[in-house]
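Q: Joint fold for the lines below.
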Amino acid sequence: MNAPLPTQRYTRDQMAARVARDIPEGAYVNLGIGLPTMVANHLPADRDIFLHSENGLLGMGPAPAPGHEDPDLINAGKQPVTLLPGGAYFHQADSFGMMRGGHLDFCVLGAFQVSASGDLANWHTGAKDAIPAVGGAMDLALGAKKVFVMMEHLTKQGESKIVARCTYPVTALGCVSRIYTDLAVIDVTPAGLAVVDIVDGLSPTQLVELSGVPLHF
Amino acid sequence: MNAPLPTQRYTRDQMAARVARDIPEGAYVNLGIGLPTMVANHLPADRDIFLHSENGLLGMGPAPAPGHEDPDLINAGKQPVTLLPGGAYFHQADSFGMMRGGHLDFCVLGAFQVSASGDLANWHTGAKDAIPAVGGAMDLALGAKKVFVMMEHLTKQGESKIVARCTYPVTALGCVSRIYTDLAVIDVTPAGLAVVDIVDGLSPTQLVELSGVPLHF
Amino acid sequence: MIDKTVATAAEAVAGIPDGATVMIGGFGTAGMPSALIDALIAQGARDLTIVNNNAGNGEIGLAALLKTKRVRKIICSFPRQVDSQIFDALYRAGEIELELVPQGNLAERIRAAGAGIGAFFTPTGFGTLLAEGKETRMIDGRQYVLEYPIHADFALVRADRGDRWGNLVYRKTARNFGPIMASAATTTIAQVREIVPLGALDPEAIVTPGIFVKRIVALAAPTPMARPGAAG
Amino acid sequence: MIDKTVATAAEAVAGIPDGATVMIGGFGTAGMPSALIDALIAQGARDLTIVNNNAGNGEIGLAALLKTKRVRKIICSFPRQVDSQIFDALYRAGEIELELVPQGNLAERIRAAGAGIGAFFTPTGFGTLLAEGKETRMIDGRQYVLEYPIHADFALVRADRGDRWGNLVYRKTARNFGPIMASAATTTIAQVREIVPLGALDPEAIVTPGIFVKRIVALAAPTPMARPGAAG
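A: Joint structure:
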């Protein structure tokens, strides 16, 4: 991957706003830890969108005002949150049944790698001395009708995180619907990876070179 | 089975009282439809015994006063009941999980037949033209640490309902702990059927003759 | 603004197609969504598969639906009752298919559908007529039967109160099959006594979160008293 | 009269033997029964298998228990955290065994133990390192892994309020693993903020019926704020 690095990229806020645009009113959504959390900031306040947190709530509201944190009301990242009127609490078996049963419309997740066939790797670097931890990652990867991934297109070393086959241990197979990167928005389709958006100033040819996998335009 | 019929038998109330004596304070109990329901009348009011009804309640109280029936508060026999302070409602998966998971201490059930190895037949006569219906019978038969059966010892034709092998379709295999009849109380043990009580005026020999299966005394 | 409430029972059951699998809540009359069943009869869908604990009582509700001969198959635990004459006649005439399932397996199969479980090993039914031909396995010294989820296209449930997001609370033993059926159907339709403002239901006590409910209709119809009968 | 309340945390954890499998509720600090864990440390049982979502944070609670080196094995979904230094050191030294389970499979395996399910097919984990060596099956075109229940000898859970029969209600997201762990252990011990008179808890809103609880102790300890970290 020695293609020249693009000069323009989507900012993290632009990426989050782009994901938010794809979430219609009435959707049930789980936003993973990290970058996906930012999507919440871009969901229009006048739109009823239902946020699920796998530790046991639906109808999650924004962070509480300082001094109003409740240690019993946290999200999956263990940050203090609030509950909207109309929200509900439930236990872990019910919460993960809600995901596994396909009731959520969207999960938005971070990733180390996504393969051309939609395999996701986001839980384990594969490093020999790493202590493994999975949490809800594997459930989230299967836990919605559509799974969106948000990630930088390239590693710090300039390698594509969109790959022919994951080299990191996978989280789930064939689960990703759409990939949002700082360079492009790409659908995973039965016919292969299909580019939906591309950042200004980057040509299709350059994107293919940077990605190292076949892309349809 | 042409042994002479006994002249003395336990009444249904005596049978119910005998079962009630075997249920200690603090027990969680499901009383099946019919004869077992009568056990409730003999549980001392000053003893905390927790009645479960599989349609979704724990802490079932007595029948309501006339005019106070609530169509939304019924037992598994669809009779109006009440809930004691400290009782709780739950849905069907939770209710049957409670049984299947072995959390009840006792189920008391009626039966067509019980085999020497504790197989229970109480859901289907096996008649060719019968419309089958099982309800919670198979779950109840497995649904407690101990399953007590209450039944007449003999059919109307004078045949023993305690049998070497069930001729009626079974409800569950090896599930019965103790049998209460109008003639005796009999434990099902790995070593065979062991008589605990026998009605006054009936000899062990007579009981064996009437039962047609080996009994230990 | 998301508002799942609809004005009438007819609107609530609109679009149920011929051939649909429809779960109907209730144990006896408790939790039985009678107005939705009546609307389904009026709506006219046929060739239905119905999932309910029973197979109708008397001449009303599910029994009345069966009487229209629009039900091809019923999956239930306890069809035969003192007043199941309509089902009985159809069954004896070979005009309805019956899948008889022990009540706990019925509940767990519905729950498995809602929770995305592919199949599960249950001890209930092992060694009986109802497990004939099914896969069995000994696990930790106990015998089990493999059972599969029951999914539905529609679920008709009755709850006590609900809100415009579809959150539901039930009343006493009328809760029975409602929560699990709501989770197992593609489209769940709830009949409630009262629709309350968003936030009026205690979030600690909501039994069915709105994610499981697509349409909700307030209908004041009282529950008739069940006719006592055999278990199930 | 049945009264499951005990006066002290020490009394509540009495009798937990060496070699026991102990479930501990909580997700981070929410629902973590800290006083019961401290009492378990004081009680001295060793060679324990612990089931929790995490593997301890900082130097308190479960982390402090691990530090005593009385835990032989931990079954959890997310051991590695910013402040899991005690677990990390034990693990790297080979002084603790880890069974890593995806969080939803952990929850479902605990629920299966409570509900008497022998095993179940779950899609989660299929094709990953965590399903290596496990039985798999294609059902209706989807791939599943067979998972078994996790039973425990004891469960330590934290609820908000309870009564002398052991009925429990939780508070907000502190509910998490409490209800399912309570159902999966032979002896469940609940730490609550307040014990209320029988009948004071709404029977429609009781989350853990008393049948699942053997001992209950009121302890006013507040929940510390969790330290935000990675998922799980």
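Q: Anything notable?
A: Chain B has one domain: 12-216. The CA atoms of residues 97 and 121 of chain B lie 22 Å apart.
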